[in-house]
Structures are given as C-alpha cells and as structure tokens.
Amino acid sequence: MQPRTVAATRYVTPLREGGSMPAVVEADDEGLYVLKFRGAGQGARALVAEWVAGEIGRALGLPVPEIVFIDLDPELARTEPDPEIQDLIRASAGLNLALDYLPGAVAFDPVAEKPDADLASRVVWFDAFVSNVDRTPRNTNLLIWHRKLALIDHGAALYFHHGWDGGAANAGNAFPLIKDHVLLPWATRIAENDAALAAKLDETKLAAIIASLPDLWLQGPDAFADPAAQRAAYLGYLTKRLAERERFVEEAIRARA
Predict the structure, then answer these.
(1) Closest CA to 25 of 70, 81, 86
(2) Where is the HipA-like kinase domain (predicted)?
(3) Cβ proximity of 85 and 11 under 8 Å
(4) Predicted confidence band at 17 (pLDDT cuts at 50, 70, 90)?
(5) Which residues contact 83 (CB under 8 A, 6 or more apart)?
(6) Alpha-carbon distances of 146 from 34, 106, 139, rounded to whole Å
(7) For the stretch 171-189, what's the b/e string if a residue is b when 16 or more beta carbons lie within 10 angstroms of its beta carbon?
(8) Where are the domains of the chain?
(9) I need a surface site. Which of 46, 114, 176, 203 has the fewest CB within 10 A?
C-alpha cells in the first residue's frame, strides 16, 4: 500500500495532553493533521506502532482517521517562541506521521456512551491482537465525532518491539492487560467476530502495511537488523500471532466474564 505523503507548512498548536506532545499542523494540501513527532521521547518506534496498528485497524473496517506520512522542515522551528517546541521540530526533521484532525471531536465518556456490542467486540479483538496497552478508562484514546466512535493514538501498541531482537517466540501469547480495556463491558460478541476479523488480515494485507514503513523509522540504537530484516520480523511476528490468536481471544472473553 502507498500512503499519502504531505508536507507540514504551519505549526498551529501543541496538544499538551499527549505524552509525546503531538501538535496540530497545517499541510500543503490545506488539511489539518495531528502530527506525531519522530523526535519525541518515545522515538520512531511509536510511529511504527501508529502506522502498523492504525492501518491494521483500518483493514478491519474500524473507524481510524486517515493516517499520512508528513514531511517536517526544521525551518518551521524559527517561528515558534517555545524552545521546547523548537527542539522537538528540529529533532524530527524529515518524515513523521500524522492523523487527520477531527474538528469538534470530544473524548469518549464510558459513563455517558453506550457503544454497539459488535463494534466494541471488534475493537477489543483488535487491541488484543496489536497488544495495545493504552485504551483504558483513564486514557480511552477514543473520540466521538459526528456521534460516531473514532480510534486514535496507537503509539503504545506493539509493545513487544521495545528492546526486541526480532524473534517471534512469544507472538502467540495472551494479552492479560485486555482486562483494563474501556470497551470490555460492551464486548459481548468477541467470539462471534473472531473468524471474520481474522479473515481480513491475511499475510498479503499485513505485508503491504509493513512494507510501507520508512527506512528512517527502522534505524537507531535499538535497531536489531537492517530495515528489510526488521520488516520481515514484524511480518513474521504478526502472522504468527494471527495464526495463534486463540489464546488472546480466550483471554479477552475470560476477562469480560
């Protein structure tokens, strides 16, 4: 798959509620995006997780905003008065990642909202598959936009790849942290959705998502191999996890019970 690439033309405002301080920026297509900085504290691995998990979610038919690659010119730092923002822009020069900005969206409130059981079940299955630790009542990473749910912020997914040597021995492990998922109370149809969701993620689809990862994001002190070998390792891990999904599916069903 070939992602769209845009160029940031104006820094609009920081989103300081995010741990890595993302920002709303304007791009050369006149659109507004939430930019995730490669130079932020979580590093390029967070962008890898954002792209891979986010595009897996979109392949599953889940409501994930469009994800684009975005080129950041370090000269944008000259117009910013905040030294912290200046440093972040300069450290992230080059290719970064951004999500379509959803104006007027509000945070999902698990007390006020009652999501559809099928959608909740599919989101729980997805987050268990990509090992997303960050969809809890404390930090839902869900928005309501035009009265519909939208899934954002997947930088904490694929947590296995931090300090990873490329192996896939643990790919079939359960995901006990699914017990903290904010949508678990409504996820009554996980088993019923399992086969249909898995069928949408064959090796060809996963390979296309992973092949789009830029070399720039697969370099650095924690890189265990060259970019091509890392892509192959991601594909091997996720393909094996899909084939051995019974454990994480059963764990999610048991956690809800």
Answers:
(1) 70
(2) 14-231
(3) yes
(4) low
(5) none
(6) 18, 10, 21
(7) bbebbebbeebbbbebbeb
(8) 5-100, 106-256
(9) 114
